Task: inverse folding
């Protein structure tokens, strides 16, 4: 590139023109110009996030400029109204500069770089950032004067020659930026102004050349930023306010290869530490990181300048560059070098303040850890002793832990290595980061503990001032318990004898000159050195350690303490002196002092406590009379009584007894052990006569506070009773008159009365169990006395004693006496005396079938509360019944009664262990044929249990049956199961074989009749039959057959035993897969004739099966014949039954009994007068998808729709989608031969051939359609598509439907011609559907006629339309609903094919179920549902050009008259009415 300067203006103009020509402008061509122009605009707008970034770019350019020698490089920035003027005193542009500013990535700095310093800019695109705020930029430099206009083609790199708008400054390069004329230009001006105001002189610190920046702003004082340097620091100034910086250099060698730093292996890092002070203290704040110009602040408190490679926007460091990672390692080295032993003097003690912390950039964050870890390993900190040390070996010792309470004062302990006091307090938190430890309360105590425990002599040798300071520190900084924990066992108290002692080991007092006491011998009492005690802090410390003022009380405490430890030498005289000193000080001795710790010497020279001694005082009691030859009693040594004046002897004895518990009366219990009698008193009880012991207790003791265990032990003392025998005191009674009068006979209780005179004086002995009241034991003893007599006790006297015991008995132990002893008298049935029994041998009440038991309720009728409630004498229970059965009773009546009792108990307390009874001969059986009865075991396989009434009738002549009534058996079903006899139930053991004449055919009409009558049949049967009957009738099936014979048999071994066969109407009860019972009814065809239905045998079988009273058989007949709810209610009321029920299968029998609603009547005939057979018409639930429960819900809501106009019903699918709001569907023609019905073309309803349709609300909201047809239709004009379409409509009577059913079974009327027409029509439809969607196959053909077309037969024809099409692709839907909104889910089309040989208007058959499907699937004007019912009207079948007309939603077409219906001998006859 040309680095020469232009010598005149013409040369400069020519150079500018060349720039434009080179870029394809001013006559030259360049196809990339447009793309380049767009790219330039994108760069200028998007390169930098901040619009004012161009200011930094201009400063960068100024620093990279060349300056004449002796010139101080400066930059001037002046903000005018809507423009910005920049001037720099550089040497001016040469041609290379112009080429660079007009280019991209053509910076003049490439290859110019100083190896160590680097350079500021490098991309050649920084200048373009001015266009983020400016549209036009004028430049004046040397002979050059040109501009860039962003709004012209390539205007940011293709200059125009133009005179500079501002006065030209000689020796300066000038830029004039005209700010973009936008709506927010003032905002841009304000942003620029703020940015210029925020410029700090720090940005000059690391620039290579630029040293001054002058800024002029409107309405603002001029701003001057400058940077000057001295040998020791850099001075930055802003308008005269200066800040000093210490700048340190560090070089990093072996830099990695980098494209943007070709050939550079060495770079320089500068660290600048601001020396800003406030009030003499150094203040640190967040500083910027520089790449010559500031990048931004990352959280460092010192400045970092390095030749970082930046991202394009210069607003961040490129983290991917290995060059930058190497610089990071260099920064760590630079910081460690800067603060080491060669640190600048001004940083010597302040550098810790600059340790990095809270760096907010993920790339620079590791510098925190790296710098700290490196410094922790280096000797970088000064100590007060040994120069530079490793930080972890130093401590920060606060002034309060120093000898003179100053920061640089002497430390208290020699093993401290304190950090130099030159580091100000403000650095301490940073020093901790380096591992310097701070002295804490805990560490101080630990140091002290080491001194006093490991080297105690050193502690005592410390100077007085040290001890005073230590005492002050401890008493002001620490709690008493903390001090005691360290010094409790240490020799920390100086004594008068110049020794050091531990307060825990010796009794130490402060000396007091005002106290003169004679201290007894044998005590370890010491006093504190008076010099040490004078210092208040030390005195307080000694007090914390337990040193007290010396007084009598303290001497007494010392005595007590001595006696507690018994340390040192001791003599008898010492112990005597101690007690006598306490006696002499008794008036000042604290009464709360525990004297029990004092030891005495007894007469045998052994140490004992006072509570173990006796003082023989004749004035109280002569102990020798009670302790003869008893060596365990101890007395005080004789020395205790020497030197005691006679006048003091009483006080001495009383004091010894009071203070030390020395006794003159034998101790009944030992102090501290109140639950047991002392050995010495037990000795008295065992050696002295009972009366002497009782007298001692009565005269010398109070019994108020004695524990129960002691009273019990005294109560066990054997005393003499009136019969001369010894009894425990607590089992005797005081012979007072009140008790003597209640004995049953003279001398009956002499063995229970204590033999004492003056009974009134012994009342207090009730404490020991001596009784004065007639309690439970009193009457129990009376009862015991009666059991010893040979004669029978008087009944009244015995009953009275039982009554008294009932009133006295209070706990379980007393009740258990009757379990332990035979105390209940049962008289004999003979004249002999009765027998005494225990309570568990008796029964209060028992059934008569228990022949071995004599219940108490028959003997003591008025004592139920005692025997039953109190003694819990039970009634006979399950086990009693079992035991009776195990005696093998032979009376069938008794056995039945026993089983009845067994069953009742089993209901209350089921027992799983009854199966053992199965092996006993306790089952009475009989056979009518053999006229015999016998008793066998349950393991006998030749008998059964008749658990169904009709099965008993079937098998009663052929097998043995349990000889129990059916009612009894039904009550005992669970019991028999527990006995493992369930397989003997005839309902389980019975097997059946059926013989039919003809093929059974399901009769849905009969099933509907029976289901409709089910709730009412349930009402007339016994309550215990309803649950099973409800289950059977809920699963009822009715079959028609020419004739049927049902044979039932049971297996005995391998031999089948047949019962009486059934013919005619046959009931067959079976188990379903779900474990429920289903009822299959087979009825001969001849009994299904309307004039014979219901047959008598059907009602009889119902009566037998459900055990209905025979007199109500006729009621069953009427319930099956009658459908009128009011008439049914009348019949039931006349026979005494409750209200009508609603037959809903989902309900339980109990629910049905509580329901008072009526079943809705269905489509009925319009005849006003019906004959008797019309009562056979029944309400049947509509076919899929509705349900009985749904019908019930609709009927209950019926009142809401009464007398309202008819609206077609919405499909039960629950989902529907939009059609036209007028309810008319017009989908036009489908192909050539297919059409869809349109109600708009329906014939006038008053036309001569139109069907008249009348809609009204009948019953509870059920709509009924009545139709009349003016013109008759001949049978041979109507053709049906399949044989299944011939069922009778339900709006005729049930009798007619039944008649049709019978007729169909006997003589189907479908002609061969009808079948051919149906096959042709359905085949035509199948081919059409495949043409609509090629994915359709024969599985959509759900008619039995598909077999005629060669496909697999369809076996469920009756439940489906001829075609069931799931239209997933919506191909068919779009044809049938052209232009309508379709649901997102697949639509299922149920298509019935109605084919005729004649034209479209030819009539066709429509069965009643098909009419119900049409009604249930209607959707009228509502949204299109997911299930759609369609009639495909195929006509002209054999003409060679058959056609089809689709009737979508037939019920709606019926409503609008486009499709008419009329009844015709079973099915409806339908006709399409179109214009």
Result:
């Amino acid at each position: 590139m040309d680095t020469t300067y232009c010598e005149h203006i013409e040369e400069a103009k020519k150079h500018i023109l060349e720039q434009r020509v080179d870029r394809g402008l001013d006559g030259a061509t360049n196809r990339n110009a447009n793309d380049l122009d767009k790219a330039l605009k994108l760069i200028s707008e998007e390169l930098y996030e901040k619009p004012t970034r161009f200011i930094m770019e201009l400063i960068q350019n100024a620093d990279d400029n060349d300056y004449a020698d002796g010139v101080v490089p400066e930059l001037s920035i002046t903000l005018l109204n809507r423009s910005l003027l920049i001037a720099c005193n550089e040497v001016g542009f040469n041609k290379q500069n112009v080429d660079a500013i007009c280019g991209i990535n053509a910076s003049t700095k490439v290859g110019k770089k100083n190896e160590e310093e680097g350079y500021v800019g490098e991309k050649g695109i920084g200048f373009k950032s001015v266009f983020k705020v400016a549209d036009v930029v004028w430049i004046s430099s040397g002979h050059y004067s040109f501009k860039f206009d962003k709004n012209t083609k390539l205007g940011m790199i293709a200059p125009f020659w133009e005179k500079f708008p501002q006065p030209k400054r000689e020796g300066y390069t000038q830029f004039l930026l005209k700010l973009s004329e936008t709506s927010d230009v003032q905002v841009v001006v304000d942003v620029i102004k703020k940015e210029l105001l925020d410029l700090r002189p720090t940005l000059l610190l690391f620039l290579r050349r630029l040293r001054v920046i002058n800024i002029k702003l409107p309405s603002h004082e001029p701003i001057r930023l400058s940077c000057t340097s001295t040998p020791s620091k850099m001075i930055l100034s802003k308008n005269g306010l200066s800040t000093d910086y210490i700048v340190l250099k560090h070089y990093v060698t072996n830099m990695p290869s980098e494209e943007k730093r070709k050939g550079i292996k060495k770079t320089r890092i500068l660290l600048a530490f601001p020396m800003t002070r406030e009030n003499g203290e150094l203040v640190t704040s967040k500083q910027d990181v520089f790449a010559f110009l500031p990048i931004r602040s990352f959280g460092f408190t010192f400045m970092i300048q390095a030749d970082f490679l930046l991202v394009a926007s210069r607003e961040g460091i490129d983290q991917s560059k290995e060059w930058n990672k190497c610089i990071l390692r260099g920064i760590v080295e630079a910081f460690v070098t800067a603060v080491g032993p060669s640190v600048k003097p001004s940083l010597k003690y302040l550098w810790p303040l600059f340790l990095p912390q809270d760096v907010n950039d993920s790339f620079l964050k590791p510098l925190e850890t790296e710098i700290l870890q490196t410094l922790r390993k280096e000797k970088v900190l000064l100590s007060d002793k040994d120069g530079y040390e490793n930080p972890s070996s130093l401590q920060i010792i606060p002034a309060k832990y120093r000898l003179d309470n100053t920061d640089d004062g002497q430390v208290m302990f020699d093993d401290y290595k304190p950090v130099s006091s030159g580091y100000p307090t403000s650095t301490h938190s940073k020093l901790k980061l380096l591992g310097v430890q701070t002295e804490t309360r805990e560490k101080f105590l630990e140091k002290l503990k080491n001194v006093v425990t490991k080297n105690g002599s050193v502690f005592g040798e410390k100077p007085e001032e040290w001890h005073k300071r230590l005492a002050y520190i401890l008493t002001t900084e620490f709690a008493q318990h903390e001090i005691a924990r360290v010094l409790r066992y240490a020799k920390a108290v100086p004594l008068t004898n110049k020794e050091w002692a531990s307060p825990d080991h010796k009794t130490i007092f402060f000396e007091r000159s005002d106290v003169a006491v004679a201290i007894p011998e044998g005590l370890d009492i010491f006093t504190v050195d008076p010099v040490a005690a004078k210092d208040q802090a030390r005195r307080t410390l000694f007090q914390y350690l337990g040193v007290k003022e010396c007084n009598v009380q303290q001497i007494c405490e010392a005595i007590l303490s001595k006696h507690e430890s018994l340390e040192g030498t001791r003599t008898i005289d010492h112990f005597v002196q101690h007690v006598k000193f306490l006696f002499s000080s008794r008036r000042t001795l604290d009464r709360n002092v525990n004297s029990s710790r004092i030891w005495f010497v007894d007469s045998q020279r052994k140490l004992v406590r006072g509570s173990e001694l006796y003082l023989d005082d004749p004035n109280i009691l002569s102990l020798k009379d009670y302790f003869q030859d008893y060596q365990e009693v101890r007395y005080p040594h004789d020395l205790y009584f020497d030197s005691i004046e006679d006048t003091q002897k009483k006080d001495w004895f009383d004091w010894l007894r009071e203070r030390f518990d020395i006794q003159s009366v034998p101790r009944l219990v030992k102090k501290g052990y109140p639950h047991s009698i002392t050995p010495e008193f037990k000795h008295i009880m065992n050696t002295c006569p009972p009366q002497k012991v009782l007298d001692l207790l009565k005269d010398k003791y109070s019994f108020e506070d004695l524990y129960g265990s002691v009273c019990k032990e005294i109560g066990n003392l054997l005393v003499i009773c009136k019969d001369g025998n010894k009894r425990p005191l607590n089992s005797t009674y005081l012979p007072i008159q009140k008790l003597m009068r209640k004995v049953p006979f003279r001398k009956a209780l002499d063995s229970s009365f204590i033999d004492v005179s003056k009974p009134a004086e012994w009342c207090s002995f009730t404490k020991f169990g001596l009784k004065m009241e007639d309690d439970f034991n009193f009457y129990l003893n009376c009862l015991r006395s009666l059991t010893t007599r040979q004669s029978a006790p008087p009944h009244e006297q015995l009953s009275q004693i039982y009554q008294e015991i009932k009133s006295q008995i209070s706990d379980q132990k007393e009740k258990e006496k009757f379990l332990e002893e035979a105390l209940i008298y049962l008289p004999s049935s003979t004249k002999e005396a009765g027998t005494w029994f225990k309570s568990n041998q008796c029964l209060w009440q028992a059934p008569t079938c228990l022949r071995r038991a004599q219940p108490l309720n028959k003997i003591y009728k008025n004592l139920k509360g005692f025997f039953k409630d109190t003694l819990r004498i039970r009634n006979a229970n399950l086990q009693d019944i079992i035991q009776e059965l195990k005696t093998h009773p032979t009376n069938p009546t008794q056995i039945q009664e026993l089983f009845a009792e067994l069953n009742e108990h089993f209901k209350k307390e089921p027992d799983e262990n009854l199966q053992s009874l199965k092996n006993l001969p306790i089952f009475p059986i009989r056979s009518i044929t053999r006229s015999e009865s016998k008793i066998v075991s349950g393991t006998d396989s030749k008998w059964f249990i008749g658990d169904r009434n009709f099965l008993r009738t079937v098998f009663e002549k052929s097998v043995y049956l349990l000889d129990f009534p059916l009612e009894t058996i039904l009550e005992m079903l669970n019991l028999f199961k527990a006995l493992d006899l369930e397989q003997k139930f005839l309902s389980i053991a019975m097997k059946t074989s059926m013989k039919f004449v003809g093929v059974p055919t399901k009769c849905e009409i009969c099933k509907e009749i029976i289901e409709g009558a089910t709730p009412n049949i349930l009402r007339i049967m016994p309550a215990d039959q309803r649950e099973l009957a409800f289950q059977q009738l809920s699963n009822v099936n009715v079959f028609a057959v020419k004739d049927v014979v049902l044979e039932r048999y049971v297996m005995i071994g391998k031999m089948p035993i047949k019962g009486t066969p059934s013919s005619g109407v046959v009931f067959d009860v079976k188990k379903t897969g779900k474990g429920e019972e289903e009822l299959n009814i087979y009825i001969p065809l001849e009994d299904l004739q309307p004039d014979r239905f219901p047959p008598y045998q059907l009602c009889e079988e119902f009566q037998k099966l459900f055990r209905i009273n025979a007199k109500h058989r006729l009621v069953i007949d009427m319930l099956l014949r009658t459908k009128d709810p009011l008439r049914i209610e009348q019949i039931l009321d006349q026979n005494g039954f409750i209200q009508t029920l609603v037959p809903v299968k989902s309900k339980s029998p109990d629910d049905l009994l509580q329901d008072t609603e009526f079943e809705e009547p269905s489509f009925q005939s319009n005849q006003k007068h019906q004959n008797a057979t019309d009562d056979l018409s029944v309400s049947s639930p509509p076919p899929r998808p509705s349900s009985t429960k749904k019908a019930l819900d609709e009927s209950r809501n019926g009142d809401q729709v009464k007398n309202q106009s008819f609206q077609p019903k919405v499909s039960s699918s629950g989902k529907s989608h939009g059609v036209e709001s007028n309810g008319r569907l017009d989908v036009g023609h489908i192909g050539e031969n297919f059409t869809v019905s349109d109600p708009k073309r329906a014939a006038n309803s008053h036309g001569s051939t139109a069907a008249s349709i009348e809609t009204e609300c009948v019953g509870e909201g059920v709509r009924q359609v009545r139709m009349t047809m003016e013109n008759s239709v001949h049978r041979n004009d109507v053709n049906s598509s399949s044989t299944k379409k011939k069922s009778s409509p339900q709006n005729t009577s049930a009798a007619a439907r039944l008649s049709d059913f019978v007729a169909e079974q006997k003589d189907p009327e479908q002609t061969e011609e009808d079948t051919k027409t149906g096959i042709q029509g359905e085949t035509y439809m199948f081919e059409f559907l495949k043409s609509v969607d090629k994915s359709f196959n024969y599985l959509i053909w759900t008619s039995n006629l598909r077999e005629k077309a060669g496909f697999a037969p369809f076996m469920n024809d009756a439940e489906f339309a001829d075609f069931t099409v799931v239209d997933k692709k919506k191909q068919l839907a779009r044809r049938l609903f052209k232009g309508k909104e379709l649901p997102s889910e697949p639509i299922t089309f149920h298509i019935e094919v109605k084919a005729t040989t004649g034209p479209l208007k030819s009539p066709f058959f429509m069965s009643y179920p098909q009419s119900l499907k049409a009604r249930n699937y209607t959707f009228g004007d509502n949204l299109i549902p997911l299930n759609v019912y369609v009639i495909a009207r195929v006509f002209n079948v054999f003409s060679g050009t058959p056609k089809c007309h689709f009737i979508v939603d037939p019920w709606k077409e019926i409503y609008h008259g486009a499709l008419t219906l009329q009844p015709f001998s079973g099915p409806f006859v339908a006709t399409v009415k179109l214009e």
